[in-house]
């Protein structure tokens, strides 16, 4: 199957927009991807024809919506190759999924003096929940260092897996630098010492094939909105044995079995972790988004984005006024860079004037910036619909930034 980029772009209405009189170049995919028409229409169709609360009614609409919602769960299961549908918990995003695990799992296993191990590459979402938990438990947050290329130092990681390590939480792909961590090997090393591992896959789900059984991770999470799906949709995968051992994260309707004033028993998996009315329309839209990615093929998306990354890196690397941050051997489609003498925020304003949407700042990864000795970067992040011509537009705009501000 050929990768028909024009046909793919044609599915994204927003790409037709002009910003400041220029056709939009959307290079902020790591923050959120745009949505194909199929996803937009799925959400709209739900409200036009199907809107109803799920899991509660005997009437037709409720049963239909419940069926669609549970079909979406099955779709997610297949997409990440989980063994059982009950291992898929819907959340509103990665942040909520990590907080759930820190609260319901981390809290049970962590004692005074114990350790949680993260890496120096983490997004704040995979750092702060663990930091707060460690503070509460008088435990220690240990951080595996990165090298100058933005790779996690594997020898240090292995050494830091100690007798007090009770949990490892690692990003699959860095949102700040694009580094792909060797998570399979890292999980295996932790498991040798019986340490459970959570993988933050927020940046992975739209770029690489995920197989939670092959990875053998204990928890895996991602956000639908970063994978062509709606905002407010997210996924937590957890191994059944662990999910069953955990208390609920939030309490209320749906997560209960029997309620009296004296006592409450909890619903079975996955409902035990889905208190209250979920974002039904977003979850249905997420299913359509996964269908969209499947229709292109994760391998094809990966090859297309690899070509963009290589071309973009080549173009930027040859500019003596630019420094690229994050040069890991295994990277996905993110280029973080700085001009030698121009503040990223000022540059961002000029890029915006030329119709290019990119991100400047610390990318919710302040410790990564501290490690690199900078306050932030300019980040371009590619998606399935970006093109080489758009990278040429970026290069043109770089020329303009230098002329105006250099
Ligand atoms: N983890 C990583 C690596 C991310 O890039 C992000 C968002 O940028 C998150 C977690 C948080 O995702 P969300 O805001 O969708 O919960």
Helix residue percentage: 40-55%
What is the arithmetic mean of pLDDT? 97
Could you list the spans in which at least 5 consecutive residues all have pLDDT below 50? none
Number of strands: 17
Description:
There is one protein chain. The chain is of the alpha/beta class. The chain has two domains: 134 residues, Alpha-Beta Complex (Aspartate Aminotransferase, domain 1), CATH 3.90.1150; 255 residues, Aspartate Aminotransferase, domain 2, CATH 3.40.640.10. The protein has 14 helices and 17 strands. Strands 4-10-9-8-7-5-6 form a seven-stranded mixed sheet, with helices on both faces. Strands 13-14-17-16 form a four-stranded antiparallel sheet, with helices on one face. It starts with a helix and ends with a helix.
